[in-house]
Amino acid sequence: MTAAAVAAAVLVAGCSSKDEGEKEKTSGGSTADATKAVVLVAQKYQTAVNDQNWATACGLRTERYRHGSVKECVANNQPDTKSPEPTPTESDDFPPLRRADGSIVPGKSTPSASGPDRAKTGKVKASAPEDVPAIGDHPAGMGVLVEYTVTWPDSTTTTRRALRVVQQGDAWLVDQAEDIAESDEAHGDPVRDALTRG
Predict the structure, then answer these.
(1) Cα dihedral 176→178→183→189 (10° resolution)
(2) Gap between the Cα atoms of 1 and 9, Å rounded
(3) What's the rounded Cα separation, in Å, for the pair 62 and 134?
(4) Buried b (16+ CB within 10 A) or exposed e, 28-54
(5) Which listed residue, of 84, 114, 121, 198, carries a Cα 20 to 30 Å from 141's Cα?
(6) pLDDT tens digits for 114-173?
(7) Under 8 Å CB-to-CB from 10, ≥6 apart: which residues?
(8) CB atoms within 10 A of CB 25
């Protein structure tokens, strides 16, 4: 009788543990699989935004955040005017201009097809996610700090952003993105502060 009671207790404990694990996994808890999925989505999303790959970025947003379909989101993020085609400098078309002292006047640089406003961005790094509460229209989810370097011809800066990643069905999607401000850093929890500023 005692052996049967012990076996029943083990069976109940085993079922209870499995049910709790399944519940945690499907409710967006911090299981290893969920953590890995959230980090991968955050990195993929921010990389797509940096590359202006709007088909991928919009596909990784919630419907609320993209304000409609993926197709509408892509169209809304296209620049109004295309970058100008590269043109040669003045000195390439004509003989170089010379000053009275004989020195050459350098040609004017012109925008390239990639645009003078485009900088080189480094690889996106993502922190371990943390739980963030619902606020306004944003549901509760996981907050992830993403950061990457931005390199210009004469300087390099680091950009830090907080992403709210939420679970919808079997997918994790980005529902909010906020730049990390100095005030967020000062409070010690920049991700939560940035995503709950209101």
Answers:
(1) 50
(2) 12
(3) 15
(4) bbeeeebeebbbebbbbbbbbbbeeeb
(5) 121
(6) 444 567 889 999 999 999 999 999 999 999 999 999 998 888 999 999 999 999 999 999
(7) none
(8) 14
Q: How far lies 33's CA from each of 15, 21, 101, in Å? A: 20, 12, 70
Strand partners, 77: none
CA contacts within 13 A on the Cβ side of 32: 0
Q: Is the backbone of residue 82 left (phi > 0), alpha (psi -120 to 50) or beta?
A: beta
One-character DSSP codes across 66-132 = HTS-HHHHHHHTS-SSPPPPP---HHHHSPPEE-TTSPEEPPPP---TT-TT--EE---EEPPPEEE
| pTM of this structure | 0.66
**What residues contact residue 138 under an 8 Å CB cut-off, 6+ apart?**
164, 166, 175, 176, 195
pLDDT in tens, 12-39: 444 433 333 333 333 444 478 889 999 9
Strands 130-132 and 125-126: unpaired
* Sequence letter at residue 118: R
Q: Is 188 left (phi over 0), alpha (psi -120 to 50) or beta?
A: left
